[in-house]
Write a structure and sequence with these properties.
single chain; about 15% strand; Rossmann fold; alpha/beta; about 350 residues
């Protein structure tokens, strides 16, 4: 039985990964803080190991005896660049260092982001050999994390995964997209142009990470593109098309696409960021995310993953969106499909 540890295990994607590993017969350990809410994980009977990516000594102890470490701990938004770098760069370096300090270093699979690679050219999804060009502070911090773990790759067998938009049961960021369409029939598009996007359901991402841990290629010092993988559904859509798919799965006959001009988007993001700073919270709509929205298309190809490992998403985009919508409905987050409600705040 393989022994695997998941950092960021209490997060949205982490919960999906723990479930996947449990189903695949792994002996699963979860890195948690003393005060972490472990309720969603307890059904899988994992071994909880207390530690923090900011404390390399705690990681050395937690990683003892592991065959593979899946590093998901990180942050997607912050009002400060220094916070992004502290968690996404230094935290990743600490994880790789702790793996290196084991008598037999485990395989390390690091969850990065398409944002670390940068936007794609119109009509041409990104591939692993394209030049890396992040446009946001978040993207820069994730790339810094990649470079940090790469320093240990001659001793720690490491692979990097770069997903695009990730959605699925338990996700609160994409929930707002479903909510606006299901409750109000309104789809906000942060551009006047029809940019293209890739997406992936959290379960498919986690299944891919598990496959990569077993049969994926590892980073090396010669070919900088080897060992890094984009993981995405094969279907590339525009943001408007994504809204239509969501409207279909929540049984909304008609939606209104409201395109937001860049100046208005930036003004709203700046206001939202100020409010977030006053309240001491990072909000999903902020100036950094606006930089990504202004950059154009965010599409990527998963062909290399398919060639190296044979992996393909278990279900296509529309059924995965429906699965997600049904979960939101069961939680009472969305109205029952086909019902019409007034918009609520």
């Amino acid at each position: 039985m393989k022994r695997a540890l998941v950092t960021g295990s209490t997060g949205f994607i982490g919960c999906h990964l723990v479930k996947v590993l449990f189903e695949q017969g792994y002996q699963v350990s979860c890195l948690v803080r003393e005060n972490s809410n472990r309720t969603k994980l307890q059904r899988y009977s994992p071994d909880f190991r207390v530690g923090d990516v900011s404390n390399v000594d705690s990681l050395r102890k937690a990683f003892n005896g592991m065959d593979v470490v899946f590093h998901l701990a990180g942050i997607t938004k912050s009002n400060r660049m220094s916070t992004l770098m502290r968690v996404n760069e230094t935290g990743s370096e600490n994880v790789a260092r702790a793996c290196d300090d084991q008598p037999t270093p485990p395989v390390l699979v690091v969850a990065s982001s398409l944002a670390a690679a940068g936007p794609s050219k119109p009509g041409i999804p990104r591939t692993e050999t394209d030049k890396l060009s992040p446009v946001s502070n978040y993207g820069l911090s994730k790339l810094a994390g990649e470079l940090a773990v790469r320093k240990f790759s001659d001793r720690v067998p490491t692979s990097i995964v770069r997903p695009p938009i990730v959605f699925g049961e338990g996700d609160r960021d994409c929930y707002n997209l479903f909510r606006g369409i299901a409750k109000c029939g309104v789809h906000l598009i942060p551009s006047l142009a029809d940019h293209q996007f890739s997406a992936i359901h959290a379960r498919d991402l986690c299944l891919a990470m598990q496959v990569i841990s077993e049969s994926g290629k590892r980073l090396n010092q010669v070919d900088s593109s080897q060992g890094g993988y984009f993981v995405a559904d094969e279907q590339v859509v525009t943001y408007a098309d994504l809204g239509k798919l969501i409207a279909k799965v929540v049984e909304r006959d008609r939606i209104w696409n409201l395109r937001i001009p860049t100046p208005l988007l930036m003004a709203f993001a700046a206001f939202n960021e100020i409010i977030g700073q006053i309240r001491g919270e990072a909000r999903i709509v902020n100036l950094d995310k606006t930089r990504e929205a202004r950059a154009g298309s965010w599409a990527c190809s998963a062909n290399r993953l398919k060639l190296d490992t044979g992996f393909r998403c278990v279900r296509s985009l529309e059924p995965r969106l429906r699965q997600t919508a049904e979960w939101y409905e069961r939680q009472g987050w969305l109205p029952t499909r086909g019902s019409v409600l007034q918009c609520s705040p």
